[in-house]
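[Q] Does anyone have a clean structure-token version of this?
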Amino acid sequence: MTIHIDDLNNMQLDVLREIGNIGAGNAATALAKMLNKKVNMDVPKVKILEFKYVNDILGGADQLVVGILLRVNGDLTGNIMFMLDINAAHALVDMLMGDFASNASESAEFSEIEISALKEIGNILASSYLTSMSALTNLKIMPSVPDIAIDMAGAILSVPAIEFGKIGDTVLYIETEFLEGNSRVVGDFFLVPDMESYEVLLRALGVIS
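[A] Here you go.
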């Protein structure tokens, strides 16, 4: 049995949205610990959508973005992406590194230490989502080491699109907005479970038998 977006009823969608809400809250807490600063979070927008619409959410295929991609392993398999536009990525680095950041707000250039910082932030945030999902479902879910790419959205998405095309075209989209002092960072999470994993996830949550 494989599950497509059109097969999910309102209760099942609400459960997936709730995972997004809880995960975003945990991500904000993890980011606050990492920064050693108070981080607030707006209520995330959580949607189930088809993969072909991801480019539009990111501002178009030509939009310059930072993409952090992790493979999900364990009882649930798939991929999780954390995407930021260039300005948001620099703002996040500034939050973390303060005076040590490059301050090149619209440049695609990041120092090695800034790249490491972005990978670590992506890893911590993605892990927070997966930990929430694991706690809610009692499933063993583990992220891989993150990969990072800085390129136009269309170019970054073309690689996972090939993989995702093999497993289905539905993503759980979570727009997360973090606020620290006067800094505001909007990042987009895309969780793409393998097709069989939707069924595993919904069964573990008790919304299908």
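[Q] Thanks! Anything notable?
[A] The chain has a mean pLDDT of 79.
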